[in-house]
Amino acid sequence: MSLLDLSDIYHARRRIAGQVTRTPLIPALSLCDAHTEVRLKLETTQPTGAFKLRGAVNAVARLSDEQLARGVVCASTGNHGRALVWAARQRGARATVCMSSLVPANKVEAIRRLGADVRIQGRSQDEAQQLVDELVERDGMTPIPPFDHPDVIAGQGTIGLEILEDWPEVDTLIVGLSGGGLLSGIALAAKTIKPSVRVIGVCQARGAAMAASLDAGVPVEVEELETLADSLGGGIGLDNRYTFAHVQALMDDRVLLDEIEIARAMRHLYLHEQLVAEGASALGAALLLEPARRRALDGRLGRNIAIIVSGRNVDMQTFSAVVEQRHPVWQTTPG
Ligand SMILES: *Cc1c(COP(=O)(O)O)cnc(C)c1O
């Protein structure tokens, strides 16, 4: 099934070494109990604040000088956009980020400050994506998408290599799931090295396109809803080529988490592990913190559990409101 194998991930690791942090895997005492040991893979320590640097650096490393001279382009204003701009800059290439006029000024400014050439078109993500296609067609720029690309998947997979090296006894990996590049890469690496490893995907209950697509058996669109896990928003692409099939084949369980559960986990990671984790990266902890969610997995969690804490790029006003229980999410459920 797979168009990628473990050797692609080893090659990716060699390419990204030096530009991407080999992140620590630290025991989280506040999440351990008599039956489980939990460790956190801190992708929050990457230079751009999220794991997406791995895939972007790997993809950019494979471009020819001629491709680099014409520049790279994407339509992401989030963690992928930040990563691509950083990765391009390391190689002296220009990165263009296309966005709609609805993207808030602070986000536009943040990505411009990293060195991006920002182009604004239309009033939707789709219209911004049309501009990407135009720039590829007209100016020969190379598009680097956020997840559905073999080099991006291989780059994210290096996380799996690192975890298996640092903790060969690991039983279960809990991975945030949106477009599925992260889960595809990690599961491919981990299960090739150790077939008994289980991979659990965690999504936000509000607008999880991959979960809906798995249920439908084909990629489908879902309405995008506001969520604390904003980095998990967006579709998987109706013409998805790689990640849908990978996730379908490699994921053992999936759990959808509510906003209040995400908020509790963000607060927990801050108060008990001193971590600033964005909503998308708190879902693994959220699963472990909710007894009902653990029971639903009925013994399939295993003993040694690694959670990918995938990023730290959260608006700090939102973050402090969540942590101090001033955020509206706390009003939705008593207690
Ligand atoms: C992109 C992202 C994810 C999900 O990765 P996919 O490859 O899209 O599934 C999880 N957490 C953070 C912080 C992200 O930026």
Quick overview:
By secondary structure, the chain is of the alpha/beta class.
What does this structure look like?
With 335 residues, the chain is of the alpha/beta class. It folds into 2 domains: 229 residues, 3-Layer(aba) Sandwich (Rossmann fold), CATH 3.40.50; 91 residues, Rossmann fold, CATH 3.40.50.1100. The strands form 2 sheets. The chain has a 6-stranded mixed sheet with strand order 1-2-10-7-8-9, with helices on both faces. Strands 5-4-3-6 form a 4-stranded parallel sheet. α2 packs parallel to α4 and α7 crosses α8. The structure holds pyridoxal-5'-phosphate (PLP). Pyridoxal-5'-phosphate binds next to α8.
**Coarse shape:** globular
Total individual domains: 2
Biggest sheet statistics: 6 strands, mixed
User: Could you say what the CATH topology of the largest domain is called?
Assistant: Rossmann fold
Overall helicity: 40-55%
| Reported CATH architecture of the largest domain | 3-Layer(aba) Sandwich
So what's the oligomer here? Answer: single chain
Number of helices: 14
Q: What distinguishing features does this structure have?
A:
alpha/beta, 335 residues, 14% strand, binds pyridoxal-5'-phosphate, six-stranded mixed sheet, 14 helices, Rossmann fold, 2 domains
